[in-house]
Amino acid sequence: MQFINHLLLDMELDPLTVEYLSIIIKVLLIGLICIVANFISKYIVIRIITRIVTNSKVKWGHIILERKIFRKLSHIVPSIIIYSFASTFPAYQSTIENLAIVYTIIVGLVFIQSLLNGLNDVYQTFEISRVKPIKGYIQVVNIIIMIIGFILVISNLIGKSPLLLLSGIGALSAVLLLVFKDSLLGLVAGIQLTANDMVRVGDWIEMPKYGADGDVIDISLNTVKVQNFDKTITMIPSYALISDSFINWRGMQSSGGRRIKRSLFVDTSSITFCTEEMIEKFIKVHYLTDYIIQKEKEITEYNVKNEIDRNNPVNGRALTNIGVFRAYIYNYLKNHPGINQDMSLIVRQLDHDEHGLPLEIYAFTNDVQWAVYESVQSDIFDHLFAVAPEFGLRVFQNPSGADLRNLAGESNKKSLVGDRSY
């Protein structure tokens, strides 16, 4: 720099002109040095580091490269150079050094934030991340580091000690609590969610209050992101999962069985005692042979023992078509390949109402996938709707327009026949 001053003075220029020209040349020279240093750090050093990481066997090396951690750190080189040359401008040395320090702090904050996010990405490659996510904690650390960095930047700009600013923050604590209310609530909620294992990434949760019904894809400090089954995204505040109720279907998914709880409504006017012809027909049904033989033997022994007159069907015990049908459904499900035989299996009657007599099937499929579950359930009820008439039973259904038209047509025919006979 002294050489530049002497060179300009030897050219016999005006002293004021020499001063301005020397400053311009020094600034351009320092800028050129910064550009060259930045080029070397970005396009030479970082390329070498990238090649080393790429050729290494570290699985998470590509995550570091995607986050551009080293590239962000390279921005610190120009600030170091500017700080080193600050003494070249004695009148502005203090200001230049402070600005260089501020820039260095900002670059350091960006680097630390990128590094923490990279660590979170690496952590997510492990299976434990689904059970114990740390994204919320990393966000808390980021907030703390940003606050510290902000205090250091302000203290350098005003030339005061950081401790002086920290003492003033105590008076602003109420304001800070208000500003960071959601973050603090989210931090507490995140700790409770993780400690109690209430929700994990990949869980299917249902929260009607927020319109959420799908899989958890992300858990952060403030929100839990849910991808609904219609592919929309619902954002739920983390603390809402603590204060409000929600359904987590993880237990169902891990149990290996998904519940079928559905009823078949039988028209009560079609329920009757089984005749000899019906019993002979039912005994030939594969799933009913053993049941009919055992029941007939049991009923006969009971009626003989109690000397019951069976000429009147009301007396004693007898098979009914609804009872045989219920037994058929149970045996059919016991032999169904899509039903989990190690879990509850019940075929029961519910309270009779205006829609008929409900026959409820309570069972579990052996596959929890939605498509498979719906397919198994549909196959079962397809079969039951088709087989019910074979037992002399009618499935209840409210009269449709076609039923009313048929009824009106029959009424018209009878009227015409009556007129002709007359």
TrEMBL record:
<protein>
    <submittedName>
        <fullName>Mechanosensitive ion channel family protein</fullName>
    </submittedName>
</protein>
<dbReference type="InterPro" id="IPR023408">
    <property type="entry name" value="MscS_beta-dom_sf"/>
</dbReference>
<keyword id="KW-0472">Membrane</keyword>
<feature type="transmembrane region" description="Helical">
    <location>
        <begin position="163"/>
        <end position="180"/>
    </location>
</feature>
<dbReference type="Pfam" id="PF00924">
    <property type="entry name" value="MS_channel_2nd"/>
</dbReference>
<feature type="transmembrane region" description="Helical">
    <location>
        <begin position="137"/>
        <end position="157"/>
    </location>
</feature>
<feature type="transmembrane region" description="Helical">
    <location>
        <begin position="98"/>
        <end position="116"/>
    </location>
</feature>
<dbReference type="InterPro" id="IPR030192">
    <property type="entry name" value="YbdG"/>
</dbReference>
<feature type="transmembrane region" description="Helical">
    <location>
        <begin position="20"/>
        <end position="41"/>
    </location>
</feature>
<keyword id="KW-0812">Transmembrane</keyword>
<dbReference type="InterPro" id="IPR010920">
    <property type="entry name" value="LSM_dom_sf"/>
</dbReference>
<keyword id="KW-1133">Transmembrane helix</keyword>
<dbReference type="InterPro" id="IPR006685">
    <property type="entry name" value="MscS_channel_2nd"/>
</dbReference>
<feature type="domain" description="Mechanosensitive ion channel MscS">
    <location>
        <begin position="182"/>
        <end position="250"/>
    </location>
</feature>
